Amino acid sequence: MKIAVTGGAGYIGSHTVKLLTEEGHNILVIDNLYNGHREAVPDNATFIKCDIRDIENLKEIFNEFKPEAVIHFAAFIEVGESTKNPLSFYINNVSGTLSLLSTMEETGIDKIIFSSTAAVYGNPKTVPIPETEPVKPINPYGQTKACVEKALKDISQFSNLKYVSLRYFNAAGADPSGLIGESHNPETHLIPLVLKTAKGEREQISIFGTDYPTPDGTCIRDYIHINDLAKAHLLALEYLMSGGESNVFNCGYGKGYSVREIIDMAKKVTEKDFKVVEEKRREGDPAILVADSKKLKSILNWKAEFDDLEFIIKTAWNWELNRRF
Ligand code: UFG
């Protein structure tokens, strides 16, 4: 299949592109390289540097490549940053996606897989969280993703558009090949920061909040290995291409780890001890986000292959020690 992937040079995008090319698909990566890395795109995928808001350029690209579907990763992703600069999140995540959707409509592309997030649930009442849980984000990042989900629902109801929205829990780890991995600048995610501390690049790791209503007082997240998450995109694509209806799926393992548990596992994997300091809560953080992923398993036939925190952190550590970008 011919697939256009926006944000395909980013962390989740590049792991998905690697899998899709290995499966024999013809991939065009569209990325403005604001956060992505050109080196993360495999040689057998085509790369074009373009911003999704550049409608004229995007139209030309789509008319030439003629993708059968779009996988749309390109977005700002940091919860903390979204509370400091919400407007830029609306411009990039909402306005950018609307530009993409209008270009898709103009060029006759009617299938999209959208990168959504567990952050749309805010502080959910039911844990593990089913997709039926009300969408009530508590930070601007989650709001922008919820906005796009609403738009997709409305547009698909009254046009040919079919979409799958994948609500990611916490993507983690790296491809075991060591060729690609997580690389944000600045890095704000827990696992890479803990590993940089183990490596000696940082003096200490901060725990943001120790007074959450969780067993050890720190936030709990559902860390899903990046290749299991990439696989969900492949299955979602196959689902849409075989006539599946628009749908929303959680992507996670249904198991959560606290910030302290992540730090302890990182100490075990790296065999390093390092300084841990307790700080106040980071704005916008929900206490617990753990997925109910029954729907992903039953409808898309997804199976977790790397559901093992030690393995996840080992692959991230391997990447951290031998990063290419
Ligand atoms: N944390 C720390 N110290 C740090 C960094 C993070 O204690 O130095 C804590 C955070 O407060 C949070 C947890 O570790 O409780 C995980 O934080 P991350 O920044 O790694 O990830 P988030 O849960 O904030 O967000 C990630 C993605 C979002 C996605 C969300 C879904 O960045 O895009 O997972 O759960 F929406």
TrEMBL record:
Residue ranges annotated for the NAD-dependent epimerase/dehydratase domain, each copy included: 3-252
Keywords for the protein's UniProt record, in alphabetical order: Carbohydrate metabolism, Isomerase, NAD
GO MF annotation, one: UDP-glucose 4-epimerase activity
Signal peptide range: none
Enzyme class: isomerase
Reaction it catalyzes: UDP-alpha-D-glucose = UDP-alpha-D-galactose
Record-level GO BP terms: galactose catabolic process via UDP-galactose, Leloir pathway
One Pfam family recorded for the sequence: Epimerase
Names of the cofactor(s): NAD(+)
Assembly: Homodimer.
Family membership: Belongs to the NAD(P)-dependent epimerase/dehydratase family.
Name of the protein in question: UDP-glucose 4-epimerase
Lineage: Bacteria, Pseudomonadati, Aquificota, Aquificia, Desulfurobacteriales
